[in-house]
Amino acid sequence: MTAILCRHFGLHAIEIAEDIANDTFLKASEYWAINGIPENPTAWLYTVAKNKTKDYVKRTAIFETQIKQEIKLEQIDTEKEFEYNDQLIADSQLAMIFAVCNPANSRESQICLALQILCGFSIGEIADAFLINTETIKKRLLRARANLRNTRFQIKSLSEKQIKSRLEVVLKTLYLLFNEGYFSKANKHQIRINLCSEAIRLTLCLTENRMTNTVQTNALMALMCFQSSRLEARIHINGEAILFDEQDRSLWDQSMIQRGNYYLVNATTQSAKSPTKYHLEAGIAYWHATSTDHSKWVNILQLYDQLIIIEDSPITALNRVFAFANVHGKEKAILEAEKLNLIKNSSYNALMGYLYTYTDMDGSMAHYEQAIRLSRSLTEKHTLLKEIERLKCAKINAGKQQRST
Q1: What's the pTM?
Q2: What was the pLDDT predicted at 74?
Q3: What is the mean pLDDT of residues 120-141?
Q4: Which runs of consecutive H residues, i.e. helices, occur in 183-230?
Q5: 97 CB burial (10 A radius; 0-12, 13-18, 19+)
Protein backbone atom coordinates (compact mmCIF):
# COMPACT_ATOMS: atom_id res chain seq x y z
CA MET A 1 0.00 0.00 0.00
CA THR A 2 2.84 2.38 0.85
CA ALA A 3 4.43 1.61 -2.51
CA ILE A 4 1.23 2.37 -4.45
CA LEU A 5 0.64 5.56 -2.47
CA CYS A 6 4.20 6.62 -3.27
CA ARG A 7 3.41 6.13 -6.96
CA HIS A 8 0.60 8.60 -6.37
CA PHE A 9 2.41 11.21 -4.24
CA GLY A 10 5.99 10.66 -5.32
CA LEU A 11 8.76 9.07 -3.30
CA HIS A 12 9.65 12.37 -1.62
CA ALA A 13 6.40 12.09 0.37
CA ILE A 14 7.14 8.70 1.96
CA GLU A 15 6.01 9.84 5.41
CA ILE A 16 2.62 10.91 4.04
CA ALA A 17 2.16 7.54 2.33
CA GLU A 18 3.12 5.67 5.50
CA ASP A 19 0.73 7.72 7.63
CA ILE A 20 -2.19 7.07 5.26
CA ALA A 21 -1.39 3.34 5.15
CA ASN A 22 -1.21 3.19 8.97
CA ASP A 23 -4.50 5.09 9.33
CA THR A 24 -6.15 2.74 6.84
CA PHE A 25 -5.22 -0.38 8.79
CA LEU A 26 -6.18 1.29 12.07
CA LYS A 27 -9.65 1.99 10.66
CA ALA A 28 -9.85 -1.63 9.43
CA SER A 29 -9.00 -2.98 12.89
CA GLU A 30 -11.79 -0.88 14.41
CA TYR A 31 -14.45 -1.32 11.70
CA TRP A 32 -13.90 -5.03 11.05
CA ALA A 33 -14.01 -5.86 14.76
CA ILE A 34 -17.59 -4.56 14.85
CA ASN A 35 -18.90 -5.30 11.35
CA GLY A 36 -16.82 -8.33 10.37
CA ILE A 37 -14.29 -8.74 7.58
CA PRO A 38 -15.69 -7.55 4.23
CA GLU A 39 -16.10 -9.86 1.26
CA ASN A 40 -13.11 -8.28 -0.50
CA PRO A 41 -10.74 -7.00 2.22
CA THR A 42 -8.11 -5.80 -0.26
CA ALA A 43 -10.61 -3.68 -2.19
CA TRP A 44 -11.96 -2.28 1.09
CA LEU A 45 -8.49 -1.27 2.25
CA TYR A 46 -7.51 0.43 -0.98
CA THR A 47 -10.85 2.25 -1.21
CA VAL A 48 -10.32 3.63 2.29
CA ALA A 49 -6.73 4.57 1.40
CA LYS A 50 -7.96 6.37 -1.72
CA ASN A 51 -10.55 8.34 0.26
CA LYS A 52 -8.02 9.23 2.93
CA THR A 53 -5.69 10.46 0.20
CA LYS A 54 -8.41 12.74 -1.19
CA ASP A 55 -9.16 14.06 2.30
CA TYR A 56 -5.51 14.73 2.93
CA VAL A 57 -5.11 16.64 -0.33
CA LYS A 58 -8.13 18.83 0.46
CA ARG A 59 -7.48 19.75 4.08
CA THR A 60 -3.75 19.75 4.77
CA ALA A 61 -2.21 23.21 4.66
CA ILE A 62 1.30 21.75 4.47
CA PHE A 63 0.31 19.86 1.36
CA GLU A 64 -1.18 22.99 -0.22
CA THR A 65 1.85 25.17 0.45
CA GLN A 66 4.79 22.79 0.00
CA ILE A 67 3.81 19.91 -2.25
CA LYS A 68 0.87 20.96 -4.43
CA GLN A 69 2.97 22.79 -7.02
CA GLU A 70 5.33 19.81 -7.33
CA ILE A 71 2.41 17.48 -7.86
CA LYS A 72 1.10 19.74 -10.64
CA LEU A 73 4.48 19.67 -12.30
CA GLU A 74 4.56 15.89 -12.05
CA GLN A 75 0.99 15.75 -13.43
CA ILE A 76 -0.40 13.59 -10.65
CA ASP A 77 -4.19 13.31 -10.66
CA THR A 78 -5.50 13.16 -7.09
CA GLU A 79 -8.87 11.90 -8.34
CA LYS A 80 -7.33 8.93 -10.15
CA GLU A 81 -8.69 5.62 -8.92
CA PHE A 82 -6.24 3.38 -7.09
CA GLU A 83 -5.94 -0.05 -8.63
CA TYR A 84 -5.18 -2.97 -6.35
CA ASN A 85 -4.77 -6.10 -8.46
CA ASP A 86 -1.95 -8.46 -7.45
CA GLN A 87 0.18 -7.58 -10.46
CA LEU A 88 0.10 -3.85 -9.77
CA ILE A 89 0.85 -4.35 -6.09
CA ALA A 90 3.84 -6.58 -6.90
CA ASP A 91 5.06 -4.16 -9.57
CA SER A 92 4.72 -1.20 -7.19
CA GLN A 93 6.58 -2.98 -4.42
CA LEU A 94 9.43 -4.02 -6.68
CA ALA A 95 9.57 -0.56 -8.25
CA MET A 96 9.81 0.98 -4.81
CA ILE A 97 12.51 -1.47 -3.67
CA PHE A 98 14.59 -0.52 -6.70
CA ALA A 99 13.89 3.18 -6.09
CA VAL A 100 14.91 2.98 -2.42
CA CYS A 101 17.99 0.92 -3.27
CA ASN A 102 19.61 3.96 -4.83
CA PRO A 103 23.39 4.47 -4.68
CA ALA A 104 22.83 7.96 -3.22
CA ASN A 105 22.68 6.06 0.08
CA SER A 106 25.16 3.49 1.35
CA ARG A 107 24.41 -0.15 0.61
CA GLU A 108 23.52 -0.83 4.26
CA SER A 109 21.24 2.22 4.44
CA GLN A 110 19.45 1.19 1.26
CA ILE A 111 18.65 -2.21 2.73
CA CYS A 112 17.62 -0.75 6.11
CA LEU A 113 15.22 1.66 4.43
CA ALA A 114 13.72 -1.01 2.17
CA LEU A 115 13.21 -3.35 5.13
CA GLN A 116 11.46 -0.64 7.14
CA ILE A 117 9.32 0.98 4.44
CA LEU A 118 8.44 -2.00 2.29
CA CYS A 119 8.74 -4.94 4.63
CA GLY A 120 7.45 -3.31 7.80
CA PHE A 121 10.49 -4.24 9.91
CA SER A 122 10.87 -2.63 13.32
CA ILE A 123 14.14 -1.02 14.37
CA GLY A 124 14.89 -4.11 16.47
CA GLU A 125 14.25 -6.50 13.61
CA ILE A 126 16.56 -4.56 11.30
CA ALA A 127 19.22 -4.52 14.02
CA ASP A 128 18.89 -8.31 14.34
CA ALA A 129 19.25 -8.71 10.58
CA PHE A 130 22.51 -6.72 10.59
CA LEU A 131 23.69 -8.00 14.01
CA ILE A 132 24.30 -4.43 15.26
CA ASN A 133 22.71 -2.14 17.87
CA THR A 134 19.44 -0.26 17.38
CA GLU A 135 20.98 3.22 17.74
CA THR A 136 23.17 2.65 14.68
CA ILE A 137 20.10 1.55 12.70
CA LYS A 138 18.14 4.64 13.78
CA LYS A 139 20.92 6.93 12.56
CA ARG A 140 21.16 5.10 9.23
CA LEU A 141 17.43 5.40 8.66
CA LEU A 142 17.33 9.12 9.52
CA ARG A 143 20.18 9.87 7.10
CA ALA A 144 18.71 7.69 4.37
CA ARG A 145 15.25 9.28 4.62
CA ALA A 146 16.79 12.76 4.53
CA ASN A 147 18.70 11.83 1.38
CA LEU A 148 15.50 10.63 -0.28
CA ARG A 149 13.72 13.89 0.50
CA ASN A 150 16.63 16.08 -0.54
CA THR A 151 17.29 14.34 -3.85
CA ARG A 152 13.57 13.96 -4.69
CA PHE A 153 13.72 10.33 -5.76
CA GLN A 154 10.76 9.15 -7.81
CA ILE A 155 9.32 5.75 -8.57
CA LYS A 156 9.92 5.60 -12.28
CA SER A 157 11.23 3.29 -14.95
CA LEU A 158 14.92 2.58 -14.60
CA SER A 159 17.36 1.76 -17.35
CA GLU A 160 18.60 -1.80 -17.69
CA LYS A 161 22.00 -0.65 -16.42
CA GLN A 162 20.43 0.94 -13.31
CA ILE A 163 18.34 -2.17 -12.61
CA LYS A 164 21.33 -4.49 -12.86
CA SER A 165 23.49 -2.23 -10.70
CA ARG A 166 20.85 -2.25 -7.93
CA LEU A 167 19.84 -5.91 -8.19
CA GLU A 168 22.39 -7.21 -5.68
CA VAL A 169 21.06 -4.93 -2.94
CA VAL A 170 17.46 -5.82 -3.82
CA LEU A 171 18.28 -9.53 -3.54
CA LYS A 172 19.92 -8.94 -0.14
CA THR A 173 16.76 -7.15 1.02
CA LEU A 174 14.56 -10.06 -0.05
CA TYR A 175 16.99 -12.52 1.54
CA LEU A 176 16.74 -10.71 4.89
CA LEU A 177 12.95 -10.48 4.57
CA PHE A 178 12.79 -14.26 4.10
CA ASN A 179 15.21 -14.89 6.97
CA GLU A 180 13.08 -12.86 9.39
CA GLY A 181 10.10 -14.99 8.40
CA TYR A 182 12.05 -18.25 8.62
CA PHE A 183 13.60 -17.62 12.03
CA SER A 184 12.49 -14.51 13.89
CA LYS A 185 14.31 -13.59 17.07
CA ALA A 186 12.48 -10.33 17.82
CA ASN A 187 8.91 -11.48 17.15
CA LYS A 188 6.87 -13.63 19.55
CA HIS A 189 6.41 -16.09 16.68
CA GLN A 190 9.63 -17.78 15.60
CA ILE A 191 8.22 -18.54 12.14
CA ARG A 192 6.31 -15.89 10.18
CA ILE A 193 5.03 -17.63 7.08
CA ASN A 194 3.55 -14.42 5.65
CA LEU A 195 7.02 -12.86 5.39
CA CYS A 196 8.46 -15.98 3.75
CA SER A 197 5.60 -16.00 1.23
CA GLU A 198 6.08 -12.31 0.45
CA ALA A 199 9.82 -12.76 -0.13
CA ILE A 200 9.17 -15.71 -2.43
CA ARG A 201 6.50 -13.82 -4.37
CA LEU A 202 8.74 -10.83 -5.01
CA THR A 203 11.75 -13.00 -5.90
CA LEU A 204 9.56 -14.96 -8.31
CA CYS A 205 8.70 -11.68 -10.03
CA LEU A 206 12.43 -11.10 -10.52
CA THR A 207 12.91 -14.53 -12.12
CA GLU A 208 10.15 -13.71 -14.60
CA ASN A 209 11.84 -10.53 -15.86
CA ARG A 210 14.58 -10.76 -18.47
CA MET A 211 16.73 -8.09 -16.81
CA THR A 212 16.60 -9.59 -13.32
CA ASN A 213 16.50 -13.32 -14.13
CA THR A 214 20.14 -13.88 -13.15
CA VAL A 215 22.00 -16.82 -11.64
CA GLN A 216 21.94 -15.08 -8.25
CA THR A 217 18.19 -14.55 -8.44
CA ASN A 218 17.60 -18.20 -9.30
CA ALA A 219 19.94 -19.35 -6.54
CA LEU A 220 18.08 -17.20 -3.99
CA MET A 221 14.76 -18.55 -5.26
CA ALA A 222 16.07 -22.11 -4.89
CA LEU A 223 17.17 -21.40 -1.31
CA MET A 224 13.76 -19.99 -0.40
CA CYS A 225 11.96 -22.99 -1.92
CA PHE A 226 14.10 -25.57 -0.11
CA GLN A 227 13.74 -23.77 3.23
CA SER A 228 10.01 -23.19 2.78
CA SER A 229 9.42 -26.88 2.12
CA ARG A 230 9.95 -27.57 5.85
CA LEU A 231 7.98 -24.68 7.37
CA GLU A 232 4.92 -26.72 8.34
CA ALA A 233 7.10 -29.32 10.08
CA ARG A 234 9.15 -26.83 12.12
CA ILE A 235 6.43 -25.72 14.55
CA HIS A 236 4.22 -27.91 16.74
CA ILE A 237 0.49 -27.22 16.85
CA ASN A 238 0.98 -25.64 20.31
CA GLY A 239 3.60 -23.24 18.92
CA GLU A 240 6.71 -25.07 20.09
CA ALA A 241 9.69 -25.29 17.76
CA ILE A 242 10.51 -28.76 16.41
CA LEU A 243 14.21 -29.50 15.89
CA PHE A 244 15.34 -30.77 12.48
CA ASP A 245 15.94 -34.39 13.53
CA GLU A 246 12.50 -34.57 15.17
CA GLN A 247 10.50 -33.19 12.22
CA ASP A 248 7.84 -35.27 10.48
CA ARG A 249 9.18 -35.62 6.94
CA SER A 250 5.71 -36.44 5.64
CA LEU A 251 4.85 -32.78 6.29
CA TRP A 252 7.64 -31.54 4.04
CA ASP A 253 6.28 -29.97 0.86
CA GLN A 254 7.70 -32.06 -1.98
CA SER A 255 6.41 -29.65 -4.62
CA MET A 256 8.51 -26.87 -3.07
CA ILE A 257 11.56 -29.15 -3.06
CA GLN A 258 11.00 -29.86 -6.77
CA ARG A 259 10.73 -26.12 -7.44
CA GLY A 260 13.95 -25.63 -5.51
CA ASN A 261 15.64 -28.20 -7.73
CA TYR A 262 14.35 -26.40 -10.82
CA TYR A 263 15.71 -23.00 -9.78
CA LEU A 264 19.00 -24.49 -8.54
CA VAL A 265 19.55 -26.08 -11.95
CA ASN A 266 18.81 -22.71 -13.58
CA ALA A 267 21.27 -21.06 -11.22
CA THR A 268 24.08 -23.46 -12.15
CA THR A 269 23.53 -23.71 -15.90
CA GLN A 270 23.19 -20.02 -16.74
CA SER A 271 26.78 -19.19 -15.92
CA ALA A 272 30.11 -20.92 -15.26
CA LYS A 273 31.28 -18.28 -12.77
CA SER A 274 32.19 -19.04 -9.15
CA PRO A 275 29.22 -19.84 -6.89
CA THR A 276 27.70 -16.96 -4.93
CA LYS A 277 26.54 -16.89 -1.31
CA TYR A 278 23.05 -17.83 -2.48
CA HIS A 279 24.35 -20.80 -4.51
CA LEU A 280 26.19 -22.19 -1.50
CA GLU A 281 23.29 -21.67 0.93
CA ALA A 282 20.89 -23.21 -1.59
CA GLY A 283 23.24 -26.20 -1.88
CA ILE A 284 23.23 -26.63 1.90
CA ALA A 285 19.44 -26.37 2.01
CA TYR A 286 19.25 -28.92 -0.84
CA TRP A 287 21.16 -31.54 1.19
CA HIS A 288 18.96 -30.90 4.24
CA ALA A 289 15.75 -31.26 2.21
CA THR A 290 16.64 -34.25 0.03
CA SER A 291 19.00 -36.57 1.90
CA THR A 292 18.60 -38.73 5.01
CA ASP A 293 22.07 -40.27 4.76
CA HIS A 294 24.47 -39.09 7.48
CA SER A 295 27.21 -38.84 4.84
CA LYS A 296 25.47 -35.70 3.55
CA TRP A 297 27.26 -33.76 6.29
CA VAL A 298 30.57 -34.09 4.44
CA ASN A 299 29.01 -32.22 1.50
CA ILE A 300 27.38 -29.68 3.79
CA LEU A 301 30.65 -28.98 5.60
CA GLN A 302 32.45 -28.48 2.29
CA LEU A 303 29.83 -25.92 1.28
CA TYR A 304 30.17 -24.11 4.62
CA ASP A 305 33.95 -24.05 4.16
CA GLN A 306 33.39 -22.19 0.90
CA LEU A 307 30.67 -19.96 2.36
CA ILE A 308 32.80 -18.82 5.30
CA ILE A 309 35.30 -17.39 2.80
CA ILE A 310 32.58 -15.31 1.14
CA GLU A 311 30.76 -14.30 4.33
CA ASP A 312 32.57 -14.70 7.63
CA SER A 313 29.56 -13.90 9.81
CA PRO A 314 28.86 -15.31 13.31
CA ILE A 315 25.80 -17.23 12.09
CA THR A 316 27.71 -18.81 9.20
CA ALA A 317 30.56 -19.73 11.53
CA LEU A 318 28.21 -21.34 14.09
CA ASN A 319 26.34 -23.29 11.42
CA ARG A 320 29.68 -24.51 10.09
CA VAL A 321 30.63 -25.78 13.57
CA PHE A 322 27.38 -27.75 13.75
CA ALA A 323 28.18 -29.38 10.40
CA PHE A 324 31.77 -29.94 11.62
CA ALA A 325 30.41 -31.79 14.68
CA ASN A 326 28.45 -34.16 12.47
CA VAL A 327 31.58 -34.99 10.48
CA HIS A 328 34.39 -34.93 13.07
CA GLY A 329 32.57 -35.36 16.37
CA LYS A 330 31.40 -33.06 19.16
CA GLU A 331 34.67 -32.91 21.10
CA LYS A 332 36.61 -31.50 18.14
CA ALA A 333 33.66 -29.22 17.35
CA ILE A 334 33.88 -27.70 20.85
CA LEU A 335 37.45 -26.60 20.12
CA GLU A 336 36.29 -25.09 16.80
CA ALA A 337 33.46 -23.22 18.53
CA GLU A 338 35.70 -21.82 21.27
CA LYS A 339 37.91 -20.20 18.62
CA LEU A 340 34.96 -18.00 17.62
CA ASN A 341 34.83 -16.23 21.00
CA LEU A 342 31.08 -15.54 20.80
CA ILE A 343 30.27 -16.06 24.48
CA LYS A 344 27.68 -13.23 24.46
CA ASN A 345 25.79 -14.75 21.52
CA SER A 346 22.66 -16.79 22.34
CA SER A 347 23.13 -19.08 19.32
CA TYR A 348 26.72 -19.81 20.38
CA ASN A 349 25.61 -20.85 23.87
CA ALA A 350 22.76 -22.95 22.48
CA LEU A 351 25.25 -24.73 20.22
CA MET A 352 27.71 -25.29 23.09
CA GLY A 353 24.87 -26.68 25.17
CA TYR A 354 24.19 -29.19 22.41
CA LEU A 355 27.87 -30.10 21.99
CA TYR A 356 28.37 -30.73 25.73
CA THR A 357 25.19 -32.80 26.10
CA TYR A 358 26.81 -36.23 26.47
CA THR A 359 30.16 -35.29 28.03
CA ASP A 360 29.28 -32.59 30.58
CA MET A 361 25.60 -32.28 31.50
CA ASP A 362 26.21 -29.49 33.99
CA GLY A 363 28.23 -27.52 31.43
CA SER A 364 25.54 -28.16 28.84
CA MET A 365 22.78 -26.82 31.12
CA ALA A 366 24.89 -23.78 32.03
CA HIS A 367 25.26 -22.89 28.35
CA TYR A 368 21.54 -23.42 27.71
CA GLU A 369 20.70 -21.16 30.65
CA GLN A 370 23.03 -18.47 29.29
CA ALA A 371 21.41 -18.82 25.85
CA ILE A 372 17.99 -18.27 27.44
CA ARG A 373 19.22 -15.10 29.16
CA LEU A 374 20.61 -13.74 25.90
CA SER A 375 17.76 -14.74 23.58
CA ARG A 376 14.79 -12.46 22.82
CA SER A 377 12.75 -15.19 21.15
CA LEU A 378 10.04 -16.66 23.40
CA THR A 379 9.82 -19.78 21.24
CA GLU A 380 13.58 -20.31 21.39
CA LYS A 381 13.58 -19.82 25.17
CA HIS A 382 10.86 -22.44 25.53
CA THR A 383 12.75 -24.93 23.35
CA LEU A 384 15.92 -24.45 25.38
CA LEU A 385 14.03 -24.86 28.66
CA LYS A 386 12.77 -28.22 27.42
CA GLU A 387 16.36 -29.28 26.72
CA ILE A 388 17.37 -28.30 30.26
CA GLU A 389 14.48 -30.31 31.72
CA ARG A 390 15.45 -33.30 29.58
CA LEU A 391 19.05 -33.10 30.82
CA LYS A 392 17.92 -32.82 34.44
CA CYS A 393 15.83 -35.97 34.05
CA ALA A 394 18.73 -37.78 32.37
CA LYS A 395 21.06 -36.73 35.20
CA ILE A 396 18.62 -37.97 37.88
CA ASN A 397 18.20 -41.31 36.10
CA ALA A 398 21.96 -41.68 35.74
CA GLY A 399 22.37 -41.05 39.47
CA LYS A 400 19.75 -43.68 40.31
CA GLN A 401 21.53 -46.24 38.15
CA GLN A 402 24.86 -45.54 39.86
CA ARG A 403 23.34 -45.97 43.33
CA SER A 404 21.63 -49.21 42.33
CA THR A 405 24.93 -50.69 41.12
Answers
A1: 0.78
A2: 46
A3: 85
A4: 193-207, 215-228
A5: buried
